[in-house]
Amino acid sequence: MKCIVGLGNPGSKYHETRHNVGFMVIDELLKRHGWQLSKGKFKGHFTIETYEGEKVILLEPQTFMNLSGESLRPLMEFYDLTPEQVTVIYDDLDLPLGKIRLRQTGGHGGHNGVRSCIDQLGTKQFNRLRFGIGRPESPITVTDYVLGKFNDDEKTDLEPAINHAADAMEAWVTKPFQKVMNDYNK
């Protein structure tokens, strides 16, 4: 079994903001397959589905970004998942808009959702899909930028990038993460 976690903030106020690209990738996977997040447990919304004969959990924590690990850890404990069975999808200011990077480990890079996952899991050894949102130009603060919605120009680049990230996650369900990294980090 594998678990794909999209980080974001719950509620309509944050819907389709830059900080919620993790949710957007999960939503794309749900849309593609006609799945729904139906279980409200572990401080999150999740579903367990079968893709290409493999079981996969899709999770959107409902804790707000800074406490994302409080949703992921109990779900992993309940389903007896190891960190290697998890990929966390989150926004990254250090990548250009729409660029994705897959990694097997690393620090939090200042991302509070990832920091929460590291703190709650007690390890940095879990897969990540970093989704580039670019950096704001002043005078916009980082907080206002990540909690802001994509403008029309950005939306043009956003849709193919979300599809690319969803493709990578579908590939990971049936292939080793290292292979997916090699194929999608080009």
UniProtKB/TrEMBL annotation:
One Pfam family this sequence matches: Pept_tRNA_hydro
Protein localization: Cytoplasm
Site entry: Stabilizes the basic form of H active site to accept a proton: D91
Catalysed conversion reaction: an N-acyl-L-alpha-aminoacyl-tRNA + H2O = an N-acyl-L-amino acid + a tRNA + H(+)
Binding-site positions, tRNA: Y14, F64, N66, N112
InterPro entries xref list: Pept_tRNA_hydro, Pept_tRNA_hydro_CS, Pept_tRNA_hydro_sf
Entry annotated with the keyword Calcium: no
Organism domain of life: Bacteria
CDD domains xref list: PTH
Cross-referenced SUPFAM superfamilies: Peptidyl-tRNA hydrolase-like
Gene Ontology terms for molecular function: peptidyl-tRNA hydrolase activity
Site, as annotated: Discriminates between blocked and unblocked aminoacyl-tRNA: N9
Keywords assigned by UniProt, alphabetized: Cytoplasm, Hydrolase, RNA-binding, tRNA-binding
Annotated signal peptide: none
Main location: cytoplasm
Enzyme Commission code: 3.1.1.29
Catalytic residues of the enzyme: H19 (proton acceptor)
Function: Catalyzes the release of premature peptidyl moieties from peptidyl-tRNA molecules trapped in stalled 50S ribosomal subunits, and thus maintains levels of free tRNAs and 50S ribosomes. Hydrolyzes ribosome-free peptidyl-tRNAs (with 1 or more amino acids incorporated), which drop off the ribosome during protein synthesis, or as a result of ribosome stalling.
Family membership: Belongs to the PTH family.
Subunit structure: Monomer.
UniProt-recorded name of the protein: Peptidyl-tRNA hydrolase
Organism: Gracilibacillus salinarum
